[in-house]
From TrEMBL:
<keyword id="KW-0949">S-adenosyl-L-methionine</keyword>
<dbReference type="Pfam" id="PF22528">
    <property type="entry name" value="PRMT_C"/>
</dbReference>
<feature type="domain" description="Protein arginine N-methyltransferase">
    <location>
        <begin position="187"/>
        <end position="356"/>
    </location>
</feature>
<dbReference type="InterPro" id="IPR025799">
    <property type="entry name" value="Arg_MeTrfase"/>
</dbReference>
<dbReference type="GO" id="GO:0042054">
    <property type="term" value="F:histone methyltransferase activity"/>
</dbReference>
<keyword id="KW-0489">Methyltransferase</keyword>
<comment type="subunit">
    <text>Ring-like homodimer.</text>
</comment>
<dbReference type="GO" id="GO:0035242">
    <property type="term" value="F:protein-arginine omega-N asymmetric methyltransferase activity"/>
</dbReference>
<dbReference type="GO" id="GO:0005634">
    <property type="term" value="C:nucleus"/>
</dbReference>
<dbReference type="InterPro" id="IPR041698">
    <property type="entry name" value="Methyltransf_25"/>
</dbReference>
<dbReference type="GO" id="GO:0032259">
    <property type="term" value="P:methylation"/>
</dbReference>
<dbReference type="InterPro" id="IPR055135">
    <property type="entry name" value="PRMT_dom"/>
</dbReference>
<protein>
    <recommendedName>
        <fullName>Protein arginine N-methyltransferase PRMT10</fullName>
        <ecNumber>2.1.1.319</ecNumber>
    </recommendedName>
</protein>
<feature type="domain" description="Methyltransferase">
    <location>
        <begin position="66"/>
        <end position="162"/>
    </location>
</feature>
<keyword id="KW-0808">Transferase</keyword>
<dbReference type="InterPro" id="IPR029063">
    <property type="entry name" value="SAM-dependent_MTases_sf"/>
</dbReference>
<dbReference type="Pfam" id="PF13649">
    <property type="entry name" value="Methyltransf_25"/>
</dbReference>
């Protein structure tokens, strides 16, 4: 994944009211380091999916004009050229563009691939393109809000008959069992215990009573340990209910307004005998289908679902419940899900769950409401 969302130095304000200089400092700079690019390039699930999407559908690229949004190291642009594209515009917002340019040259493709430093919101191309390729997905798909830039690129530069790679995306949610919740509670309690030791020592040795800060400190730690989602690569056996789709996106027609928030009501039937509902896992998959006018010969899927062997650098977002209600096979968990962009940082997300358990036997517990942060 590269970078190309409403960014760039200079203190300008984008159409969505975000200061571009602040956005560049907070977000884009991460992608200007090779170590971060290497992390993504070592993700074999990610790499194989994009490689196969391009080279198993070479006829879609031969003689075509391609735009790579957020090119990063330039790998997708290089593959597009190797597959037969006659011209590839590789757009990158950071100085990683210099490395991409060198890589293109080292692979003898400087006559085909043109690396452009800038954002798709600001740059201009001399022509419309046949294909937009981009690895824009963040944690739980929409974190980072990079898909905004892909939509801008599509609306500005894609031909009416053009194709998007990937073409479709889905967000999934499922109930899970895990020991992560106990670990987080222990970490939270250790943090607050340490705070009280700090108060005693500061008062004893330095004569300053700082206990007035206890409440905001505990609120801060509570948010970090108990309300912030966790990145994790789960095993399939940790799923205790049937996964449900909470969002489907057609990359060819989606609008920014459509992805500003996600709302879903789903029901998941518990598949495991007598266990605890420790929380939920959220993940995504994307599909490379081409377009109606130019369908892919072979559809490729990239999934970040819990896996026995091949985890991804995205993993899953884990939302932990405290306390953990008891559930059993055949029980239904009714989930009301909402996800919005953070008001403080449009690249981060705020999530709210509303839960109702319907047990096959016994009294149903009170509904649960919980707020989480994806940071």
């Amino acid at each position: 994944m590269g970078s190309s969302v409403n960014g760039g130095p200079g203190g300008r304000v984008s159409n969505n009211g975000v200061d571009k200089g602040v956005d560049f400092a907070n977000y884009f700079c991460t992608y200007s380091f090779l170590y971060h690019q290497k992390e993504m390039l070592c993700d074999r699930v990610r790499m194989d999916a994009y490689y196969n999407a391009v080279f198993q559908n070479k006829e879609q690229f031969v003689g075509k004009v391609v735009l790579d949004v957020g090119t990063g190291s330039g790998i997708l642009a290089i593959w597009s050229a190797q597959a037969g594209a006659k011209k590839v515009y590789a757009v990158e917002a950071t100085k990683m563009s210099e490395h991409a340019r060198e890589l293109v040259k080292a692979n003898g493709l400087e006559g085909v691939v043109e690396v452009i430093e800038g954002t798709v919101e600001d740059i201009n191309l001399p022509e419309k393109v046949d294909i937009i390729i981009s690895e824009w997905m963040g944690y739980f798909l929409l974190r980072e809000s990079m898909f905004d830039s892909v939509i801008v690129a599509r609306d500005r530069w894609l031909k009416p008959t053009g194709a998007m790679y990937p073409s479709h995306a889905r967000m999934w949610l499922a109930p899970i069992k895990t020991g992560l919740g106990d670990q987080r509670i222990n970490d939270y309690e250790s943090s607050t215990d340490d705070w009280h030791r700090f108060l005693d020592e500061t008062n004893t040795y330095y004569g300053v009573d700082m206990s007035v800060l206890t409440r905001p400190f505990c609120e801060e730690q509570n948010k970090y340990y108990l309300q912030t989602s966790i990145w994790n690569n789960l095993h399939p056996h940790q799923l205790i209910g049937i996964p449900g789709i909470i969002k489907e996106i057609d990359c060819l027609t989606a609008t920014v307004e459509e992805i500003l928030n996600v709302r879903a009501n789903i029901s998941s039937s518990i598949t495991e005998e007598k266990t605890r509902l420790c929380g939920f896992a959220g993940w995504f998959d994307v599909h490379f289908r081409g377009s109606k006018q130019s369908p892919a010969r072979l559809e490729i899927e990239l999934t970040t679902a819990p896996s026995e062997n091949n985890g991804t650098h995205w993993g899953q977002q884990v939302f932990l419940l405290h306390p953990t209600p008891r559930v059993g096979k055949g029980d239904d968990v009714l989930i009301s899900f909402s996800m919005d962009r953070s008001k403080e940082n449009h690249r981060l997300m705020e999530v709210e769950f509303g839960l109702e358990m319907r047990h096959l036997a016994g009294r149903n517990p009170q509904p649960i409401k919980k707020k989480f942060y994806i940071e």
